[in-house]
Model the fold of this input.
Amino acid sequence: MSKIIVQGGKQLSGVIEVNGAKNSALPILAATLIAEGEYKLDNVPDLKDIRTMIKLLQTFGLEIEKIGEHSYKIINTGVSDIEAPYELVKEMRASFVVMGPLLSNLKKAKVSLPGGCAIGTRPIDFHLAGFAKLGCKIVLDQGFVSAEASELVGNKIKLPFPSVGATENILMAGVKAKGETRISNVAREPEIDDLCNFLNKMGAQISGIGTDELIITGVEKLTPCQYNIIPDRIEAGTFIIASIITGGSLEIAGVVENHLGGFIKKLEKMGVEFEFVGDKIKVKANLEKLKSIKISTEPYPGFPTDLQAQTMVLLSLANGNSEIKETIFENRFMHVLELDRMGANIKLDGNKAKITGPVKFNGAEVSATDLRAGAALVLAGIVAKGETIINEIHHIERGYENLVERLLLVGVDIKKV
Ligand code: EPU
Done:
């Protein structure tokens, strides 16, 4: 079992570059199931989750070649299978997002139910209700969900909650549906805009991008294209916190300023100042004067749940009592116990975490319980006194490419053993 070992207390400096967004690349890769022909995708991060999606696409008959560090050629000569197996879906829940593209292309799909997850129950009922509204007959049997339609027909669909995955799946199912599909109360995350822009580049007719209603006029045919994935705003946010907690000499490059809205606003309230120069961001913060704040995770443009764990490390260094309310996932506090073992003072009260600071982190042996929890432990390790050993780092590798190597280059004393 690999581990990450961090010796805390080093000064960071230089520039760290943000990679392409995992949560954009995954649905965009899945969307290549929709139309036959050759695609080229650039700025795709080299991650375990991406490799899982590629494996899944290969089981459907797609030919995929890595043609550069972050570029892939994908050839769809016809989808040969419609079944997404349990082994791959259980490895990565986002695999479920192949259902919409398969339905769009072949009007049928069979995908294993994703099952449990460390951060919450994460049902898929909104996805299925959306497919049913487009005319699909849905059958759940033996751990699989099958959907089939003689014809997909546009409809009005209102999501009960702006779910990222449901928005993506229903959108992809709808691009070739007959007539108009209106999906309201959709997720507005930048990754949704990226998927819409990709589909429109393929010839789809989607409007309302960036608003809470997407209007899709069904088209007969989509055509493959080349596309550049947007930078990963969660990776950017993680590095921004790394910079703040180590004195601000680390610059972060490849950031889209307005993708960070809700996150930046909260950090400004704490007393952090930001300077954007082109796609680079510099932070200025006096760690001793950081103010405590209250945060509630919200769908975009609110404060992202994917930065909740990492922000807890920052709030532990701020003065006074902070609070984070987690409203998106019911069980996304597994990192709290691990951070407390490193010296944090965080108490849980239902879906709220009460954080008292400032504390001094001490190195300890800990375990990453999910991707973002793992990132939080690395951040705590960077400022901790002594050595932090992080286990279960396969979670971290799902979403941060070469994290150890990249942090090493900017001054962190870190290694993978
Ligand atoms: N939900 C339902 N029914 C559904 C779908 C969702 O009740 O049919 C609930 C979920 O249980 C959850 C809430 O709605 O409580 C939001 O879930 P959402 O569907 O928006 O999440 P997701 O699509 O499964 C994506 C990201 C997550 C990110 C969330 C929220 C991908 C591959 N994953 O998940 O990313 O936390 O949106 O922004 O895009 C991560 O990268 O670490 C990660 C977990």
The longest helix spans residues 233-245. Residues 23, 26, 94, 120-127, 161, 163-166, 187, 305-306, 328-329, 371-372, 399 surround EPU (CB under 6 Å).
